[in-house]
Amino acid sequence: MVNSSTSDLSYHDDGNDGEDAMDDDIEDTDYGDDIDDDDECMSDNSGDDDFDYLKMQAQFDNVDLPPGVEASFSWLQPSAVSSSSTTSNVAAQVNVTTSSADGGTSAPVNPHPSKEKFEIASSSSSLANVESRSHEKDESEDEILKKYKAFKAFDIVEDYSDHIYNKNAEVVGQPAKAWTKKVQDEWRILEKDLPDTIFVRAYEARMDLMRAVIVGPQGTPYHDGLFVFDIYFPPKYPEIPPIVHYYSGGLRINPNLYESGKVCLSLLNTWNGEGSEKWLPGNSTMLQVLVSIQALILNATPFYNEPGYERYTGPEGERRCNEYSENVFIMSLKTMMYTLRRPPKHFEDLVAGHFRVHAYDILESCKAYMEGAQVGSLVKGKPLDGKIFKKMTPSPTFKADVAKMVNGLISNFTRYGARDCEKFRCAQ
To answer: Where is this region: Disordered (predicted)?
Structure first.
């Protein structure tokens, strides 16, 4: 476990289709609105061919064509056209020709549609539709980035209905003035000093509640992930520390973050500590708690957060530490997937924009890890501090698990407008 000293802790700005398999491991949680779990890239299209054939056949049922005459059919039919209008359009556009007795031709009959008029009209209409959809998609993607860039590090919102402490941690009666002043002080500190990788929402009608999303630090197995925490300020605050719940999805991504949501940190008095490592009513702040979680829990070697594991040193310690980090990275990818599919309320724009911007780096890191780079040794897909990473031999299980997650992430990243992702897709 970790001790969270507030005296010497400083924040350093980094500046910088496996969904089904994942579902077996991640539990459902309460926050956020339900979204459709079906991946359009994995839908069953086994009946599409029969459907298309019957639709095509129906369009020619009422067309009077001489025997042996072939009629052309455009596959670029608008999707929302009724069968009756389509049939009449095809009948109007199709002309056939027959040979006369003297070898000439009769004008009204032509074996194929008038290709110039038909194809030009069809192509122009289709091109216009494609350009329109492309324009709409670009506008949607621009809107995602616009909202992401405008997303505030700290803000006060109204709806707290999905907060974990909404029902079982109500403030009893009118809060004391000292309590209210302290919480308002916390708001001011957070608004002024939050690093650009931690985002907080407070609630106007429930000052005792707060939600935070922490970005996983670069150079760790948690890099580029988003980790969600709900916070409760009890009536005795600040004499006692706030209560913090982690949305784990049933995954133990760190010895200090339990599947139950418990956060083990000396600054929260949930782990042993001495002096400034523990909560000090006159000095400790919510900002210190959040920065401690990011720096001391979501660190580069979470293996050593487990009590007693410091005894593992040398090659044996390195091997165990690397294996642990590989497992943590897989769980971090699963957490990304879950967050993409069920973004926490009031953080939807952050989730969409963050993974739109960082999708390529995440996938590039996955590729490098499968090829032997040490987990956590990359920053933005490149070796940490410009160093050449130590080549390792990843286990077949790790490579297979990453490959599964990569394909699912690609499908979700592209929904938010991330580009150049398909080249990372892994063969199954």
So the answer is: 1-53
